[in-house]
Amino acid sequence: MTIQTIPLNKLTVAEGGNPRRSMDAAALEGLAASIKADGLLQNLVVRKAGRKFRIVSGERRYRALSLLAERGDIDKTHPVPVDVRGDLSETDALRLATVENIQREQLAPMDEAEAFATLLSEGASLEDVAAKAGVSVLTVKRRVALASLSDEAKALVREGAFSLSVAEALTLGTHDQQRAVIERLEQGYSFDADALRGMLTGEKPAVSLAIFPMEQYAGTVTADLFADDDNTFFDDAEQFYRLQSEAVEALAAHHREAGAAFVEILTEGYVAWWQYREAEDGEQGGVVIHFKPSGRVEVREGLVKKDVRPSVAEETAEAPSAPKPQPEYSGPVIRMMNAHKSLAVMEALMANPRKAKEVAVINLLNAYDWTGRVRLDAHPALAHFAQADGQPTAYLAIEREAQDVVTALGLGEAKRHAYARPVRGAWEQLLTDTKNPTALYDVVQAFSDAELDQLHLFLTALTFGQGNMDVLDAGDSLFNRVAADLDVAMRDSWVPDEAFLTRRRKDQLEAIAKESGAIARLGRLKDYSKTQLAAALVRHFQRCAESDTAIPEEMRNRANAWLPDAMRFPAVTAEADTPEPESEEAEVEDIEPDTVDPSDFEDAGGFTEAAA
Question: Superkingdom of this entry's organism (predicted)?
């Protein structure tokens, strides 16, 4: 290092060259007073820029010196000790400025975020930035997430209008959602980080979110009388997500056909937008479609990917600011599994009058843990599958029983109210239609004790199931206790099917293939796409359930015994410590190559060469 002196008026500040965007005026005044009293105790780092010398680090000292010069305390040609660096690239200069700022006085979080994002965009690794800045890798990841905020949100973070925890939670929203939060703040509302996180990740599927034509939706909606689309919600969330997914795929195909440089569909709640920039003149831009778990779709066109290391892109793909871990199962999958479990318990109750009467007594005593439906409100699991394709065997058994009861009560030919809504099954006709009480009384009086008991237990069964359909029930609830006493075996009424398997991630499908023994037939799992692997597993489980003798008995038994932990009573949500699984190669090493049936994969878009 060679120190020399340069006149103050020969120094200049590079526009945007300092990662510190905000400087405390009082601190600057204090630094100026210190320099006036004791002189400049630390040199600046500069590099030659024409006739001037551009400051790489030491801008605060330079501004304090300039303040003294404006006041006449020192001359404009005051000699300033500097270290002239002639071999610094732009990236090295920014890195040096960032490190110098952090080590001397902590950068404001927003300045730190953008400085780190710039370094990573130039190809630096997380470890390099963390080591040179003297912070942890986690701090770099948490800060760089802030670089994806909208400009309006960034400004408010710098002004202190948002706490750091609120700013981090805000990264989970789109720029439009962030602006909406800012508008609410200006109207006098306040948010803490937890409330904001819940608001941004717990959106209901509103009609305003749909990018598909509304005429494609065959279900009902719920709205206030004078509500707009933002306050009108889809009642059938499953159908909404299916139509929205199809519309997203069609939108992606449109952009690909239009010649976009790339088309990405991102489905997590957070997107690291700092890894992209707008295409300049002459550059071919790509498209990012952000399909949030809530169903909201955001499309950004004309983007170019920055030169971020693949490892950095992968490690910063999720928002480290959100302390709540990503749930293992999405809301629609939880509801679907809870509906299956509820139907299975209903069917078991129908075969156990004693237990059904016990449940009835508890309900009539107004015991309440989400299961009490003393008004004989049909359990939502029935409606969940009423109009579904491929209805579960448990639903079909319940509906057959309901049709027999309707006939026995003489309700089959009863005239319904002119404005009554269509019923979705005989079970709904039993519990919703207005009936003549004296006519029913005459019929019921003629029932034998056994027939009356059967009717009582059946009506009880229709009301009982998973208490809260939108969460996994992992506790000591009445539902789980009753299911355990009935020894309900979910695989007697449910087979892992397309509706379940296509909603699993690729890594989850691979785990299922290993746990269920399907890997012995499927071969190398990494050679399948997610769609192919899901279709192959659907066919494998179905053939094993049908006792296909082409599949070895031991393999069928293992497949027929497999059950997701969330399908148990109670649901198991925490992954237990298990030994490391053997590699795929070890598992399939002794498998004959002709044990895989190519027909398993015809619906999955073709049989892969590696799997053959």
Answer: Bacteria
Cα angle value 548/553/554 (rounded, 5°): 140
pLDDT at 532 over 90: yes
Q: For the segment 189-246, what is each residue's pLDDT rounded down to a tens digit?
A: 777 777 777 677 666 688 888 999 999 998 887 764 444 556 677 878 788 888 999 9
328 CA to centre of own chain: 9
Tokens of 210: 């749909």
β-strands 297-305, 286-291 pairing: antiparallel
CA 193 vs CA 60, 184, 198, 366: distances in Å? 33, 15, 9, 37
CA-based angle 385:388:391, to the nearest 5?
70
User: Is the CB of residue 148 less than 8 Å from the CB of residue 272?
Assistant: yes
Say if CB 140 and CB 96 are below 8 A apart.
no
What is the residue type of 499?
A
Cα of first residue to Cα of last residue in the chain, in angstroms, is: 65
User: What DSSP letter does each residue of 253-298 carry, written as one string?
Assistant: HHHHHTT-S-EEEE-SS---GGGEEEPPTTPPPEEEEEE-TTS-EE
- pLDDT higher than 80, residue 575: no
C-alpha dihedral, 331 to 332 to 336 to 342, nearest 10°: 40
Q: Are 118 and 94 in contact (CB under 8 A)?
A: yes
Candidate from 256-270, 407-421, 552-566 with smallest mean pLDDT: 407-421
Fold of 3-105: 3.90.1530
Alpha helices in 464-574 (DSSP H): 478-485, 498-501, 506-515, 519-522, 530-545, 553-561
Cα separation, 294 vs 291, in Å, equals: 8
Domains of the chain: which residue ranges?
A: 3-105, 245-310, 351-415+422-462, 478-567
Q: What pLDDT does 320 receive?
A: 61
Q: Which helix (H) or strand (E) holds 222?
A: strand 221-223
CA 415 to chain centre: 48
Cβ–Cβ contacts within 10 Å for residue 399, how many? 19
Active site members: 59
Q: How far apart are CA 337 and CA 611, in angstroms?
A: 30
What does the radius of gyration of the chain's CA atoms come to, in whole angstroms?
33
* Model confidence band, residue 323 (pLDDT cutoffs 50, 70, 90): very low
Question: What is the model's pLDDT at position 577?
Answer: 40
Could you please report the per-residue DSSP string of 122-188?
TT--HHHHHHHHTS-HHHHHHHHHGGGS-HHHHHHHHHTSS-HHHHHHHTTS-HHHHHHHHHHHHTT
